[in-house]
Amino acid sequence: MVFQNIPILRAAGSCGIQYDRNVSGAEVRAQCPFCNDSRKRLYLNTERDVFHCHRCKKSGNSITLYAEINGISNAAAYRELAEQAACDCPPLPFSQKDLCRKKSENIIKPLAERSQIYSDMLQMLELLPKHRLNLQNRGLDMSAIKRNGYRSVPKKYGRLYSKTMYLLSGKYDLSCVPGFYRKNGRWHMAAMDGFFIPVRDAEGQIQGLQIRLDNGGDQKYKWFSSNGYPEGTKCSAFLHVVNGKTGKKTYITEGALKADTAFSLMGRDVCLIALPGVGSMKGLDSLLQKLNISELTEAFDMDKDTNPAVQMSVQRFYELMKETGVAVRSLKWNPAYKGIDDRLLAGKRQEGLAA
Ligand SMILES: [Zn+2]
Question: In the 8-state DSSP scheme, what is residue 172?
Answer without folding.
Answer: S
